[in-house]
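Long-time lurker, first post. I've been practising inverse folding by hand and with some scripts of my own, and I keep getting stuck on stretches where the structure tokens seem ambiguous. Below is the full token string for one chain I'm working on. Before anyone asks, I'm not after the true native sequence, just a reasonable design that respects the backbone. If someone could post their per-position residues I'd love to compare against what I wrote down in my notebook.
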């Protein structure tokens, strides 16, 4: 399960419904053109926290049907509603997903015993493997190495998606838990994360820039850091432009230029403006054409 995973984009129609044809195209685009090693389905990149339980299930269905065992799949089932997380986990497991992931429960100030129970409940009720999704800057949940160690005592909790800038903690975890999978979550810091020993990376921009991400990952693993840095520099120029123009709207617009029906973002995310469309074209022509 190592390597580069796209955090799967989900296209929506103008009325906010899932564009199922476009979703199938995005799955194939990631596999055939970006050459990613896996897909992380149901994460924040898919605008997951703005859709219903039934819609989340439909995304899981389409992704696994279209991927057809070509790549590894991870189903993100996390929710502030534990009962929904368990329901989604059971559903994804029944569909054939071999690994789940769950964002740390957010909004309320849960203590660590509550967070630990959340993960152990999902694992126990589904019988599936679990990758913890740690993204402190959005959830407000910061866990230390001792707490990760507590979670990792459960053999079904096999790794973590580490979306944080604390690279000291990342290095300590990589050293302390060599038998657990550690995925980097910040695309712009892929190279230093690989140097720190991560097993893979999960990111939004891999939907359009996956080929470069794989080059960075492979070169860094071979110790060719200077060559990898040159590609990371170009990648970060692209990412800087995407972030300045609206993350999800711009990635979807670039995917359209790559021949994919990437649809729209779901409200309350705003519709892309003509100015943003033109800048997305500039980014595409400069970095990806």
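-- Answer (accepted) --
I ran through it position by position. Result:
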């Amino acid at each position: 399960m190592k390597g580069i995973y796209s955090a799967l984009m989900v296209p929506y129609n103008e009325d906010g419904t899932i564009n199922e044809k476009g979703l199938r195209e995005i799955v194939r685009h990631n596999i055939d053109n970006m050459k990613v090693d896996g897909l992380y389905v149901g994460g924040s990149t898919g605008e997951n926290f703005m859709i219903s339980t039934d819609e989340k299930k439909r995304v899981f269905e389409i992704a696994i049907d279209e991927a057809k065992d070509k790549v590894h799949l991870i189903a993100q089932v996390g929710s502030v509603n534990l009962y929904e997380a368990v329901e989604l986990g059971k559903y994804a497991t029944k569909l054939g997903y071999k690994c789940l992931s769950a964002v740390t429960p957010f909004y309320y100030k849960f203590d660590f015993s509550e967070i630990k129970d959340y993960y152990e409940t999902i694992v126990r009720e589904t019988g599936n493997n679990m990758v913890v999704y740690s993204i402190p800057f959005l959830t407000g949940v910061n866990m230390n190495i001792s707490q990760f160690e507590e979670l990792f005592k459960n053999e079904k909790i096999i790794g973590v998606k580490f979306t944080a800038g604390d690279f000291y903690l990342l290095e300590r975890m990589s050293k302390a838990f060599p038998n657990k999978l550690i995925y980097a979550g910040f695309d712009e810091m892929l190279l230093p994360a690989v140097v720190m020993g991560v097993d893979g990376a999960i990111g939004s921009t891999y939907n359009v820039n996956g080929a470069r991400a794989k080059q960075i990952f492979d070169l860094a693993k071979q110790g060719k850091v200077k060559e990898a840095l040159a590609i990371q520099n170009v990648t970060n120029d692209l990412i800087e432009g995407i972030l300045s123009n609206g993350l999800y709207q711009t990635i979807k617009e670039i995917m359209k230029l790559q021949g994919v029906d990437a649809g729209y973002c779901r409200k309350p995310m705003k519709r892309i403006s003509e100015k943003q469309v033109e800048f997305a074209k500039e980014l595409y022509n400069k970095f990806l054409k």
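A couple of notes from the structure itself: The mean pLDDT is 97. Strands lie at 3-7, 38-41, 72-76, 99-103, 129-134, 157-162, 181-184, 200-203. Happy to go over any region you disagree with.
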